[in-house]
Each structure stands twice: as structure tokens, then as C-alpha cells.
Amino acid sequence: MCARAMTEHSRVVAALAAIPRARFLPEEIRDRAALDEPLPIGHGATNSQPWTVQFMLELLHVPEGATVLDVGSGSGWTTALLAQLTGSKGAVLGVESVPELVEFGRRNLTGFHLPWARIEPARPRERGAAEAAPFDRILVSADAGQVPAELEAQLAVGGRMVVPASGVMWVVDRDHEGWHREPVTGYRFSFVPLV
């Protein structure tokens, strides 16, 4: 493992320790928080498998002070983890299409002192948050079917997006020449569909 990957791994592991998964689960299943599997949070949604969350966050390379979009924020766990990684000079916006999960995620966030993170309802028929773009990083926690051009357009130059599409994890980087898409091979992922 190269030095940069080790540093990224250490930062993500520290964030996972600081933001316990159990605090983002319905009370009746909090005793299952240590299981490395997706857990139901209601409304057809899940709190993702911890290994997958760690893997995605390490791929995302979230720098301190970054502006980050969390698409499909669900219980708010990834929003809080992203805020932990950006630090107080960053800004994290979670968007969620299920109104009950917006409220659940917001309640869960209040248990942590992360005022630079917030969760908002997703706009109907819109992916992401174009009005708040550009973003340095975008994390998508639902299967988009294909890499969404609408979200790519919301990336800042120098930005990165991690998105599952048709069971494959994709890393999208944007530079002055355009977008560069790279599939992460060797793994298959299962997420609820992005609506």
C-alpha cells in the first residue's frame, strides 16, 4: 500500500471510529451495527455495509476543507462521515428523496457537532444539487444504472465522484480536459436504485 493510500485509509478508519454506525440506525437494530452487512432503515432503504462505505470513502480521497455532495444520504451516516473528513472548513450537503429519511438523517446528525453538514430533500426529477454546484467530491450511495452525466456536470475541475452503476463501482475525475471514468474491477456491489 502506497503512502497516500495508507494515509487515506487511516483518515477513513479514524472517521468511522468517531462517527459510530449504531447512532444512525433505527433503535431496534442498533445491536446489529457491528455486522458487516447492509441493514434496513425503512422505506426500502438500507444503511450500507461498513466495508463498502470504507472502500468508497477511501476511493473518494476527501481533502480537508472540501465541498462535498452526498447523494442518497439515507440515515445521514455517510453525510456525517464526509463532514468528519472535510473538517469544519468544509461543507457537506446530503440529498435524500424520501421525506421520512430526510428527517431521520437530520435527527441523527444533531447528535454530532457538525454544523457544516446538512441534509436536504432531493428535488423531484433532479439528481444531485445543481444549484449548489460545483462540488469537489460527490459520493453516490445508490445504483445509478449508468454514470450520470447530470452529476458529472456538478463536479468542480479537479473534483472526483464515486458512484455505483449496474453493480460496478466507478471513479470519475474531472480536469480541464473533461471527465475520466475508471471502473473499479474485481468487485461487484449491490445498492438500491438511484431514483
How many DSSP H or I helices?
A: 5
Order of helices and strands: HEEHEHEHEEHEEE
Largest sheet: 7 strands, mixed
Strand line-up across the major sheet: 5-4-3-6-7-8-9
Helix content: 25-40%
Broad structural category: alpha/beta
Give the termini distance in whole angstroms.
36 Å
Radius of gyration: 15 Å
Q: Shape, please?
A: globular
The beta-strand count equals 9
Approximately how much beta-strand content do the residues carry? 25-35%
Structure characterization notes:
The protein has 195 residues and is α/β, with parallel strands linked by helices. The chain is built from 5 helices and 9 strands. The protein has helices at residues 3-18, 50-60, 77-86, 99-109, 149-152; strands at 39-42, 45-47, 67-71, 91-96, 117-121, 135-140, 155-165, 168-175, 178-184. The strands form 2 sheets. It has a 7-stranded mixed beta sheet with strand order 5-4-3-6-7-8-9, covered by helices on one side. Strands 1-2 form a two-stranded antiparallel sheet. β3 (67-71), α3 and β4 (91-96) form a beta-alpha-beta unit. α1 (3-18) crosses α3. The longest helix has 16 residues, at 3-18. It is globular and about 50 Å long. The N and C termini lie far apart (36 Å). 42% of the residues are buried. The mean pLDDT is 93.
